[in-house]
């Protein structure tokens, strides 16, 4: 499946900003199942300096530095992507979850994602919630699919009731939130069991295919969960907001331990006063 | 169960070791008492200790900070050094150099390919759960820029087997090196006789080497245009407990002392904000935690705003070299210790030459069981933060021990068990003589081109009883100088004879950072404000001293009380009446005490003196800070009536005069002094205007009293009398206090001085500053002329009060204009994310 993405962000400041530094995770990373045909990041006003690199997690990062006063700042990231996620392995092919947890502690690539992270400290409630899907000896994938469905069932998608700062505990209490909240709950609980889970940032199809159900969380960036099935099977992506195994309706930007590692845009500005923010995301078949 | 700790000075058979004989002889040669007073036996050492204490106190090593409570010394220095023979030191230096090479190799892997994790040599959790592993410093695509470690320090203790063992590694900032140098300097100054005939290796060549190596670390594309690299030492600022050490180091290494707010990143390069614009910085010697370097990359959406946005980009860009590289602190993790011997074999192909105190990461199988078998043999350290205090389990009660063991069993991966061995003991001045005290030794190394060089000295300290070893340097303690003796006398020659490469010519300190100018300006203002307050209070005091007051004197007291209120030195209810002045007297005491205006001023002055410490000579610093402490103590003492007040005010006035004199006589006119003086002139101008406004606020019939008070407040009574033979008229009196540019206590003089300074300073003519001063000069010149022309001078003078009082606001406007022109007043910084921010946080910058 081939997608065209356009992700535009605009900040309007009440007072001019003298100096601004921005850090962007807006360029999709290339993966075996995801080919980046072309991509670009454009910004206005023209920055004094643009730098880019690959971060610790292998994600693409771009830095923009502006040192002239400006009252408005706009970034548009565009890309064309070919995605072909392989189908998930049969449930029975995955190892019992306890064995995966043991292997993860020793695995250089997976161990990091078993540990608590700044936005996702250990949380007994999340662990207990997730643990209901993992009885002893259950194949990990069976538990994951069950968990994915339970979250979709138990929680209500409602925009505006949560923010970046919402904790897993608050979500468990209010039972409503957005993709980021559901993903964090799942990640936090899986890690509580010693299972590697990572926070994936990206996009999901905006318009449903004819006859298909509309997808939730389409108006902005989307987030879901990467889970590790063991050294042989590697990672699988699960979207608890839509109870989906990620296949061809998602495009990956990158991943990290939590939102902090992969925040699409962050910045430090001098001046500016109050600011207003506009974001628009468009994902359409190319 | 533990063997007796070895003695550094005495061997097993009770003989003094050869390398201690010289220092013992030196102590016995000291006169028994250096003062005339009789002293108890063994007093040479004790007297030496007392003199050292006094010398450190005079230098104000324990920083003087707001709130007199914190005054006092943080560290004592024992007069008896720890002596190491050359051979032993060389072995330690070689062993630590090997260890430093190993830690560098580990860092290059952790911040690079992470092969050690893939090969199973290092458990992944030791990297990924380590809070000092800084992910923004690693790229999955390319290796880090070597070298990462530039300085390295290690804490060592001598175990009962007689060998030195490494207790802890310090890879982040190697704190204590400046203190070590200071101890040596003070010991040499206070007790020069100790060094006579001893072959003590000097420290200076090491600092020269360090300074040169910092120069050579500069990125090749340093945009300086000259061969000299600009090196700066980055400190968190005056509130950091090691601020004084940062001042010392910056001076020892001849580099600029800067705070994050002094720096800015433009176009991928780092710059210092100075009065002459942005100056490039090529090498940053970091004394700030890596996580506080760049708010863009560290800290989440709610993170702080400290640091320099874009600094990491400038580092990646190769425009600035930061040492030690941010993230180096991760290999301090105590949990890594048990893995180091195997890693040395794998990475260096060598066995570790220097043993370490036995340690076990409790996440390892068997380790917990071993701990449970004999808990009293072990000390517990956190797995990652090597700066946190270690806890000797032997000191815990049974109940506390059980609780601690349960906590450990719950999360064994968070702890390390280190064998609890007593350090060796060395003689120290204790009580009235020498006594053996345990000693922990910190040694420092610097590398250049892969070669590590150890400072031939160090920081030894005697831990307090019960203090868990291996933590960060405590705020207080007893330090010892460390002497490395040379066995071969020919090695001990002056630094000049050493085969050093020729030093490159270094640029002078150069442009003044804007923040320093800002601090000096406010220092000038506050010292002047303190003086003004003391003068005013003394004028009030002189009237409280007298018996019943005449109506004329009461009117003066009313004017003075109004001025006191205006200056924040009294409240409305303190205003006097004919009957009782006790309320006013109480108000004066209140102003002096904690919470009062004068106490606040002395606190602020102390803080500003500390923050510009690197701009003052040692003598000047002493002169600026020591009397201040005495004033704070005096003011905190129980009230002693009018005489007590008189004493304190006298001390304050002497202090202010001393500061003014020392600054005028010792500071180079360009740069710093100009701002100190600008601050003083602006403040004095404001005070004069305000006080004259109150003094002249009289009906025409009483104007003569007002004029007399005006002359008194401007300290101009004698001058007036000698000029006009005591005939008091408004025009000549106001000419003297307002317009005459020759009267240093008059307003005209302040304005003339402002004009002179601003003309000298580049850029003073911008922003309409000079024209504003000139306009004000014209205004004050016109006032006495207008009085002369007036028919009834008394009537005209009585109408002047509001006009003169308004001059205070004019001076304040000039002060604001100076601040706008010279001190980079930044708009508040705020964090942007994908959600609109709630309230923008404000980043304060500068002194006021």
TrEMBL record, chain A:
Domain called Transglutaminase-like: residue spans: 171-242
PANTHER family noted in UniProt: BLR2979 PROTEIN (PTHR33490:SF7), BLR5614 PROTEIN-RELATED (PTHR33490)
Name of the protein in question: Transglutaminase
Organism field: Teichococcus deserti
Automatic annotation (TrEMBL), chain B:
Domain DUF403 per the UniProt entry, residue ranges: 512-823
Name this polypeptide is given: Uncharacterized protein
InterPro entries listed in its UniProt record: ATP-dep_Glu-Cys_Ligase-2 (IPR051680), CP_ATPgrasp_2 (IPR025841), DUF403 (IPR007296)
Circularly permuted ATP-grasp type domain residues: 81-461
Signal peptide: none
Domain of life: Bacteria
